[in-house]
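Session log. Operator J.P. requested a structure for one protein chain; no other inputs attached. Running the standard single-chain path with token output.
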Amino acid sequence: MPKTLKEIRIKAGETAEDARPEDIDFVLSERLNLTPSEYELKQDLVLTDDQVKQANKDIKKLAKGVSPQYILGYAWFLGYKIMVQRGVLIPRFETEELVEWTLEHLQSGDSVLDLGTGSGCITVALSQEAAKKGINDLDLTISDITDTALRTAEENLLTYQIDALVRKANVLIGLGKFDKIISNPPYIKESETKVMDENVLQNEPKEALFGGKDGLDFYRKFAEQVRDHLNSRGEFFMEFGFSEEEELRALFAKELPDFEIEFKKDMAGKPRMVHGRWQK
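Structure written below.
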């Protein structure tokens, strides 16, 4: 039976041959509580019997195509440990940039809606990072369309002792008015299914991924409803698919002519975020 980390790593690659090497390394390093550099430097580390048993269980799940974050039960987002489970979207690095952009505009006392909260990662990171910057007294609301997401988000908020109103809602229907709305909505086009990672399709909730034929179903509903849910000079921050900028620009120009709209690229240079400010 393999005993060293190197031997377990080799076995994982042979057993879960369709798993990405970085996913295998992520699971093994997290179980052993090793940083990326420690993981590479300690390949001769001898594992205990319990650690070997756990690794074998994890390898079997990786071989079945289970996402590494679902195996561990958590993901990392802006340095915060976020609980996730099947039925809840796994946080993405791109969304970290959306949070950081929102922080640049956030003020103490703002009322903030995390629309389509999923795991609650946005609210956790936003509130914690805001406090570090001296931005306090935020009036926080999270909403989602599924009970599974809301239960998971509530647990993450509880972990970080964050007080927020929790609401079940389809886009903005039934919600109040806010100074800031931040959202990572479903935006994948139906046609993009064939080029997506099978791991994502197999594991993550379809309602959190797909935005209709052209990926813009959510944004159309949002544009129709947003004026009723923003305070004067209110702002929204949203993520979108990198191929959708022109269509989204045209949609907002038509539906939200009284908004100042700004688009921003992510660190990879791809169009990824949009900021809208109501001029009223």
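Operator note: The chain has eleven helices and nine strands.
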